[in-house]
Amino acid sequence: MNLEMARANVRATEGFLRPTVLGGGAASLRKFGLYTMDGSGNATTDITEGRLIPVNLPDLFMGLTASWEVDIWKKLRSQREAALARYLSSVEAKNWVTTNIVADVSLAYYDLLSLDNELDIVRQTITLQEDALKIVTVQKQAAAANELAVEQFEAQLLNSRNLEIELLQTISETENFINLLLGRFPQPILRDKSHFIRPFPAQLRGGLPLDLLKNRPDIRAAELELLATKADLVAARAAFYPSLNLTGSLGFQAFSPKFLFTTPQSLAYSLIGNLTAPLINRAGIEAQFKGAQAVQIEALYNYQKTILSSYIEVNNQLSNLNNLVKMYDLKTRETAVLTRSIETSNKLYRTGRATYLEVLFAQQNALQGQLALINTQKRQLQATVNLYRALGGGWK
Q1: Distance CA 38, CA 53 (A)
Q2: CA-wise closest residue to 153 among 128, 172, 173, 177
Q3: CA distance 31 to 3
Q4: Mean pLDDT in residue range 237-245
Q5: Regarding predicted confidence, which is higher, 213 or 314?
Q6: pLDDT digit string, tens, across residues 135-155
Q7: d(CA 236, CA 291)
Q8: Residue 355, number of CB atoms within 10 A of its CB
Q9: 27 phi and psi angles, rounded to 5 deg
Q10: What pLDDT does 39 receive?
Q11: pTM
């Protein structure tokens, strides 16, 4: 909508530079006072042979009328430049909105893949916990374990099943959020969760800050808005100078319809030039000029702020990605150790060298470690999306 409004404004300002030509007709009736120059002259003058000018004088006109403001001080051209810059700024704003929508959908999609993998891990853990519950139940029957151990294993299993239900609900909500971003009604999101776990580059290279000025739509939009305010200031300053307006007409004019198209007697034309300048009570023009100055300063501050925040965003994401690679390596090793501890604790428990609490802790820690590993991988993928956003989304 803003884009169409900006495009219409460009067309309007282009039209101001050209003459305005109107076609049509006019009819009027005039009566001059008798004791005036026109009235006394008309009283003794024939309008046609043997007929005096009537007291009530009709006046008919049909033809073309034109007006044109000559753009001496580039006021109108500056207004056109401002409108064009704002239109281009709207285009860049649209690109920036598109970039953010793509990024938001990607973030939600990776979140969805993360939830799928978490759900698989929780279900695997539930299977292990069910087996452990069966073992401790048999041991209780053989008087090798007590009721407290059975209750602890059962409570842990119930907690994992509750976590499974929570994940299913979160998956449903994430799917609906993606559908909302895509502007469609709820439906399943097609995805391949096997693509979630994949190797990540150990190091990413950053470009030059100058590249942001070329690639980020929001920076280009802020720059174009700054150019628009500069043109507005030129137009506001030109309002203090004299303006030249040309008006004219060409057509047929007569006092009676039967003489209206009689040529060349009814042919009429006029050309008037007006040169005017504001002298007294220029408060409105001065206020407009000061307002344009203030808007330009605001646009300059916004441009500087956009550049600075953009550079910081890129720097943060590059640092985040490099650190997440190290974190993922440590979490991978940690998860491997915790996964082995489950088997170790089960063996020791069966031989009576470990308590049921140690088995519970091993299973719980392994589950938390695997979920943390999935979360770290998700953060890596989402950091790449945020870097894509920070770098401008690929617009050229």
Answers
A1: 11
A2: 128
A3: 53
A4: 90
A5: 314
A6: 888 878 877 778 888 888 899
A7: 9
A8: 14
A9: -135, 135
A10: 78
A11: 0.78
